[in-house]
Structure formats: structure tokens, C-alpha cells
């Protein structure tokens, strides 16, 4: 199954996906970011799709542009790895049930942009990460996999994020493989 990865940042999750040998056809980013360098280092096509104004119409136009890039590369499964823009309906009209996201908390706890900081501020002893099927509602949709991560005394957002990402970089590729094993490709 041909994978398209959506990213916005450092690309550590993307690097883990590529290191696992998954077939990534294209990396699409919503802003210039180091993830494109990770793609280039692995010989994977990448494109910057500027997200523009985040009005409903602007978000829909941005999402349609993303879909066109993914279709141009024959993508059948969309994998968000540190993607930081909320996708509009056109993505789910085209790839409904085949858009995955990785979130750095045990959803439904700590949804949104600041999950690591929020878990730390809440004083929980355990947080974690979640792989789920994305839907139009942010950080909702069916959970595919979760793994707990302890919060340790003296943790900073950075130290906790590092511990979570160690788990993410193993859990996400494994969950993507399991998902593909149970889904027929869109076309044979
Ligand atoms: N329709 C969906 N789009 C996205 C989902 C999703 O589940 N459904 N997951 C997110 C990833 N994410 C959390 O895991 C997340 C990313 C970004 C935001 C957000 O509020 N973004 C702002 C812009 C923030 C910024 O750039 O500083 C926005 O889009 O207005 C919330 C959750 C990816 N997309
Ligand atoms: N709400 C989405 C979110 O916070 N995603 C998180 O952003 C990080 C991206 O790292 P990367 O750009 O190095 O892969 C990852 O830890 C991922 O869980």
C-alpha cells in the first residue's frame, strides 16, 4: 500500500517510518520544515503545500491541494506524523478511514496542540501516545493502538516528549503495518 506522510516539523516520526522500510511515496508538508530534508535524505519525493489562511474556505482549499498531491503520487494510505494543521472534509471524502494520526497522549485525554505540556501541568503519573484513524473532528476517531509512558519526577516538557517519542517511533510503524495487513489496497 503506497503511503503519503504529512508532516510539519523535525520529521523524527517520518524518519522512524522510513527506517522501518515502509513504502512512502511522498512527504507533504504545510510549511518549510526539516521533515523535507529527512525525505530527501531517503530519496523520497516531497512537496510544500502552504496552508494559507485558516478560514473554513481556506482550510478546504488547502486540504484539496494536499489531496491532489497525494493522488498524483498514487497514495492509498495517509499518515500524519507531527502534522500541525487541522484537515478539512475533502481529505476524508477521498481517504476516509485511511488517514492515520499519531498523538502524544492517551486519547481522549489531552487532545490538541499541547498534549505533553498539558499532561505535565495536570500532574498525571502516566501519559502515553495514541495511533488513531483521523476524522474531521480533531483527535477523535477509532483508536488503533496506545501505549502508556510514565511521567517521572523532575520531568520537563522536553524530557517527557523524548520518552514519549521513543515509544512513538516503535509503535507507529508497527501499527501502520498491522493496519495495512488488514486493509485491501484501493486498487490491485
Ligand atoms: N481533521 C483532522 N485534522 C487533523 C487531525 C485530526 O485528528 N483530524 N490531527 C491533527 C494532529 N493534531 C493532534 O494530534 C493537531 C494538530 C494541529 C492542531 C491545531 O489546532 N492546529 C491549528 C494550527 C496550529 C499551529 O500551526 O500553530 C489549526 O490548524 O488551526 C490540533 C491538533 C492534524 N490534523
Ligand atoms: N497534535 C499532534 C502532535 O503533537 N504530534 C506530535 O508532534 C511530534 C512531532 O515530531 P516530529 O515532527 O519530529 O515527527 C510527535 O511527538 C507527535 O506525536
UniProtKB/TrEMBL annotation:
Keywords: Purine biosynthesis, Transferase. It is an enzyme of class 2 (transferase). (6R)-10-formyltetrahydrofolate binds at residues 59, 101. It catalyses: N(1)-(5-phospho-beta-D-ribosyl)glycinamide + (6R)-10-formyltetrahydrofolate = N(2)-formyl-N(1)-(5-phospho-beta-D-ribosyl)glycinamide + (6S)-5,6,7,8-tetrahydrofolate + H(+). It holds the Pfam family Formyl_trans_N. InterPro entries: Formyl_transf_N (IPR002376), Formyl_transf_N_sf (IPR036477), GART (IPR004607). Pathway: Purine metabolism; IMP biosynthesis via de novo pathway; N(2)-formyl-N(1)-(5-phospho-D-ribosyl)glycinamide from N(1)-(5-phospho-D-ribosyl)glycinamide (10-formyl THF route): step 1/1. This is Phosphoribosylglycinamide formyltransferase. Belongs to the GART family. Its EC number is 2.1.2.2. It comes from the Bacteria. Catalyzes the transfer of a formyl group from 10-formyltetrahydrofolate to 5-phospho-ribosyl-glycinamide (GAR), producing 5-phospho-ribosyl-N-formylglycinamide (FGAR) and tetrahydrofolate. The active site is at 103 (proton donor). Transmembrane segments: none annotated.
Amino acid at each position: 500500500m503506497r503511503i503519503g506522510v504529512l508532516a510539519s516539523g523535525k520529521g523524527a516520526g517520518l524518519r522512524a517510518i522510513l527506517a522501518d522500510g515502509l513504502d512512502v511515496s511522498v512527504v507533504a508538508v504545510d510549511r518549510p520544515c526539516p521533515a523535507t530534508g529527512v525525505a530527501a535524505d531517503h530519496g523520497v519525493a516531497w512537496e510544500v503545500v502552504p496552508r494559507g489562511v485558516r478560514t473554513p474556505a481556506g482550510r478546504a482549499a488547502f486540504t484539496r491541494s494536499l489531496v491532489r498531491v497525494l493522488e498524483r503520487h498514487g497514495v492509498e494510505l495517509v499518515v500524519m506524523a507531527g502534522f500541525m494543521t487541522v484537515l478539512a472534509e475533502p481529505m476524508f471524502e477521498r481517504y476516509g478511514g485511511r488517514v492515520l494520526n499519531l498523538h502524544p497522549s492517551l486519547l481522549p485525554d489531552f487532545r490538541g496542540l499541547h498534549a505533553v505540556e498539558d499532561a505535565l501541568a495536570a500532574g498525571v503519573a502516566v501519559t502515553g501516545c495514541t495511533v488513531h484513524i483521523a476524522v474531521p473532528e480533531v483527535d477523535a476517531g477509532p483508536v488503533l493502538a496506545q501505549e502508556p509512558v510514565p511521567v517521572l519526577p523532575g520531568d520537563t516538557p522536553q524530557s517527557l516528549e523524548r520518552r514519549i517519542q521513543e515509544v512513538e517511533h516503535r509503535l507507529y510503524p508497527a501499527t501502520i503495518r498491522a493496519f495495512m495487513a488488514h486493509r485491501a489496497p484501493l486498487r490491485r
